[in-house]
Amino acid sequence: MTVMRKFYFNIRRDSTVFEDRSGVMLAGVTDAWRWAIKDALMLVRGDYLDRANCQYWIEVCDAERRAVVTFPIGYVTMH
Q1: Three-state DSSP class for 50?
Q2: How far is residue 71's CA from residue 77's CA, in Å, rounded to a whole number?
Q3: Which residues of the chain have pLDDT under 70?
Q4: What is the gyration radius of the CA atoms in the chain, in angstroms?
Q5: What is the extent of the structural domain holding 61?
Q6: Is the dihedral of CA 34, 37, 42, 43 positive or negative?
């Protein structure tokens, strides 16, 4: 049986953090990474971000709110 863990997906813009308050139950860091990539693509494609003026990052945090993965949202448009 797979043990599910809670992950949070925060958005950071410069010094401001938009905190994910609900989180998602996933099987592990790899699934959290995939979820974050999908989130980033949705934000970019939906034109929700002012990418011309700000640098945005996604922070994947574990249940204790420690960052386990961070990447610039622009990464998904380059790969």
Answers
A1: coil
A2: 12
A3: 50-54, 77-79
A4: 13
A5: 5-78
A6: positive
- Residue whose tokens read 């860091």: 29
Q: How many separate domains does the chain show?
A: 1
User: 79 is written with which tokens?
Assistant: 């790969």
Distance CA 56, CA 58 (A): 7
Question: Residue 61, class by beta-carbon neighbours within 10 Å (0-12 exposed, 13-18 middle, 19+ buried)?
Answer: buried
CA atoms of 64 and 56, how far apart (whole Å): 22
Instruction: Using alpha carbons, list the distances in angstroms from residue 50 to 12, 17, 54.
Output: 13, 15, 6
* Single pTM value for the model: 0.85
The rounded distance, in Å, linking the Cα atoms of 74 and 56 is 8
